[in-house]
Amino acid sequence: MATGLERESGFTLFSDEELSEVCGVKRVGNCVEVTCGCTSHRYGDAVGRLRVFSNGDLEISCECTPGCTEDKLTPAAFEKHSGRETAKKWKNNIWVIVDGEKVPLYKTVLLKYYNQVSRGANGSNKHQNGHRDEFVRCTSCNKERRFRLRTKEECRIHHDAVADANWKCSDLPYDKVTCDNEEERASRRVYRGCNRSPTCKGCTSCVCFGCDVCRFSDCSCQTCTDFTTNAKA
pLDDT tens-digit profile of 215-229? Predict the structure, then answer.
């Protein structure tokens, strides 16, 4: 008889031993759900439910207040929603309760599948880079900012920025770029990371039309929905 936190297929997502001291563990469909949170010095603890999937996806339903309707948030979005002052480091700032203590996600087994997917994406890019750098324009200063698309996390950051009609430089989770920083020179922007040619304007080696790294099952945008539908066909 199957034991532990297992999916109906019999695959053990995590063993009982791995999650024995983690608070609020529950098996829900094809994922494992645990209690999580993020602490703001100003607003205190924002508590939520983290769902971990074997394909590397992470989703958080926020329970910061009884009336909060934020669901299926990415870890980065939950971190920002919580009001964390030093945001943009969600692996450090989002915690789970282990043996009665708040433990950062990066110190737990819960990122096992997320890290495997990220490493796999990095390894495949050594042979074929299907994601060149892209640019998004700030709605405040009207300057274009570069986004690297080498890992699933980086692709998600770019994806969410494109979807945000009010995206600003301050929303960048890395490089600490502000609207006061100069825009990249045009001569520099032509270099976008193509393995075939440094100044490539777009080819089959650096332009991706949809893959597991840059499309997300928890997103309802047309691009992701079409990819998910075609993948299941």
Answer: 887 887 767 765 555
Q: How many CA atoms lie within 13 A of 183 on its CB side?
A: 13
- Give this prediction's pTM: 0.51
14-41: per-residue pLDDT in tens?
Answer: 888 889 899 999 987 778 999 999 999 8
The residues, any chain, with a CB within 8 Å of residue 196's CB and separated by 6 or more, are 203, 205, 206
Which spans in 143-209 are helix H? 152-163, 186-189
Distance separating alpha carbons of residues 156 and 162, to the nearest angstrom: 10
Question: What angle do helix axes 152-163 and 112-125 make, rounded to 10 degrees?
Answer: 90
Rounded distance between C-alpha atoms, residue 109 and residue 66, angstroms: 29
Rounded CA separation 212/118 (Å): 11
Question: For residue range 143-158, what is the model confidence (pLDDT) as tens digits?
Answer: 999 998 878 888 898 9
Cβ neighbours of residue 7 under 8 Å, at least 6 residues apart?
Answer: 13, 27, 29, 30, 54
Q: Is 190 left (phi over 0), alpha (psi -120 to 50) or beta?
A: alpha
**CA separation for the pair 77, 100 (Å, rounded):** 25
With cut-offs at 50, 70 and 90, classify the pLDDT of residue 126.
very low
